[in-house]
Amino acid sequence: MFKLKNFLPKDVYKTVFDIDYNKLYEAGKRIILMDIDNTLVSYAESEPNERLLALFKRIQDIGFAIIFISNNHKKRVETFARATGARYIENAMKPFQRGYRRALKLVRPLGREAIISIGDQLITDVLGSNRAGIDVYLVKPLAVRTEKWYTRLNRKLENYALRKIKKRYPEVYRKFEVWDE
Ligand SMILES: [Mg+2]
């Protein structure tokens, strides 16, 4: 069933560098589920660049554990995560709950209230996280041009959801303005 509420991100940022991680920690969050493709790097890049590695270190130094959660295959996700020391979940099948259930198992005894998720897609990251009861932050996708056909299909659905959000939740829609800055 199409529940528009499940497509609403908690907040919208331009990039992962714009999020106030200290504030999230102060609010009791301890785990960050991070999407990889087009949230952190484009499909063309297999490893995190220096700027990302510095960000991950800063986040981990605050006290967070990062878990990469991706619908991509094991080799892709493992190669990306290797230099970070963070755990990962591959073939997560977002927006289905399989990957989120694995994440919840990994972080025990912490629960969903201690987790936030960051991603670039309404149809996978936002929908999946909301269904799992996890606060989700949306960033602008890095490189839409290199996306695979199924992701492009998702973008079409996403535009549909966005038009609905614009009508029913104009205050949420306004958060997307940071993407145009
Ligand atoms: Mg993505």
Please, could you describe this protein's structure?
This protein is α/β, with parallel strands linked by helices and 181 residues long. It has a single domain, classed as Rossmann fold (3-Layer(aba) Sandwich). The protein is built from seven helices and six strands, in the order βαβαβαβαβαβαα. The protein has helices at residues 21-26, 50-62, 74-81, 98-107, 122-132, 149-168, 170-173, and strands spanning 11-13, 31-34, 65-69, 87-89, 115-119, 135-139. A six-stranded parallel β-sheet has the order 1-6-5-2-3-4, with helices on both faces. Helix 3 links the parallel strand 3 (65-69) and strand 4. The chain is globular and about 40 Å long. The chain starts with 10 loop residues before the first strand and ends in an 8-residue tail after the last helix. The mean pLDDT is 95. The protein binds magnesium ion.
**What is the third-level CATH name, the topology?**
Rossmann fold
Measure the end-to-end span. 34 Å
- Assign the CATH architecture: 3-Layer(aba) Sandwich
Q: Kindly provide the name of the CATH class.
A: Alpha Beta
Give me the side-by-side strand order of the main sheet.
Answer: 1-6-5-2-3-4
* Beta strand count: 6
Instruction: Output the helix-strand order.
Output: EHEHEHEHEHEHH
Roughly what fraction of the amino acids lie in strands?
A: 5-15%
**How many structural units, i.e. domains?**
1
CATH superfamily: HAD superfamily/HAD-like
